[in-house]
Predict the 3D structure of the following.
Amino acid sequence: MEFKETSIKGVYVIEPRVFKDARGYFVETWKQAEFNEHVGRVDFIQDNESKSSYGVLRGLHYQKGDLSQAKLVRVIKGRVLDVAVDLRRSSPTFGQHVMVELNEDNKYQFFIPRGFAHGFLVLSQEAIFAYKVDNVYAPQAEAGIRWNDPALGIEWPIDPKEVQTSEKDLKQPLLSEAVYFE
């Protein structure tokens, strides 16, 4: 695997080696020792998977305090635009974001450390999205920021009228009103 740190310290795009032949392909999606060597030790405790259709936007979500989560995300089927927003108040990149397209062909993975809001937009007819987390889901620590907050400067590649999101995500606070990390 090739680990490429993005413009925001601690956020990585991971490009696995894909072995293809007439039968299909083989890819290693997780190797603890290699991850520890390049990113650092993260103790993932749970794997999750979601299925969504075109235009579905899930995010921008995070958990606060000691219940925050690091995530390692990837796409099994389809295409998504994945976004991480730095919410670490002491970071020189506070409020900035990184975007990467994850799809079934490139097999890229995206590592988002604790202290970030995370979300994705489905660009294909359907997408199956998988991710590892290093902390349990805790509804009492759940938080988010509005996906279309102009202060974020995220250029989503589809017409906002085509975006499908939850009622809860439509009511998330703006970055200026959100709870931050130190």
